[in-house]
Amino acid sequence: MSVPHKPLVYxxxxxxxxxxxxxxxxxxxxxSDLEFSISYTTRAPRGSETNGRQYYFISRPEFEKMIHEDxxxxxxxxxxxxxxxxARRFLHEAERNGRDLLLDIDVQGAAQIQQKLPGAISIxxxxxxxxxxxxxxxxxxxxxxxxxQRRLTAATHEIENYDRYNYILINxxxxxxxxxxxxxxxxxxxxxxxxxxxxxxxxxxKLADCCRLANVRERLKPILDSFRTPGDSGGIDPx
Length: 239
Description:
Blueprint: E1 9-13, H1 20-30, E2 34-37, E3 40-41, E4 56-57, H2 60-68, E5 72-78, E6 82-87, H3 89-97, E7 100-104, H4 107-116, E8 121-126, H5 130-140, H6 145-159, E9 167-170, H7 174-193, H8 199-209, H9 213-226
Parallel strand pairs: 1-7, 1-8, 2-7, 3-4, 8-9
Antiparallel strand pairs: 3-6, 5-6
Helix pairs in contact: 1-7, 5-6, 7-8
């Protein structure tokens, strides 16, 4: 009797505007056997978004019914307004299909997943600094100034949770970031495989190690300081 596949679960979190969606899309194009969990939300579609592609758009009563039926691995209300959540069915489907699972979720959802699935691999994507994040948000031309400022404030709070993640990826140069993210996913698969690694595979593991939390702390200090609020002389502590 064959042993059921136990999916590796990858959590990716980032402040809005950090380039997470672009990185995830590129990852899914180049790494096989990786399923993407599409979140459910009660917010309305934006621009060209379509149901079942970027999100599953459902009503609040439908979402709350799913909560009552314990259908979510995690869920949260964002800005005290809309619900977002990850359905359990994606984990079951990944197990059945012999694939791994990629979750694109915020820090609230990540904390819930880490509690329920302690073996999940967590990756936090950071912009190189606050100024770059603000420029990216404005370049998207999706939000008014009030919303952009709210997103920047939320980013400051989200970034305070960076030390709960296994890997930190600083998204400065896109091509480098894609390579690093791909390296992290492949490295974890190689390490869980439990077999001797070839020289090329060992290079992948070493590339991923560059992003481990313990190895990036010094690089984080100027980034975290750039999100310091006026009058806060201490900034965010890169413990």
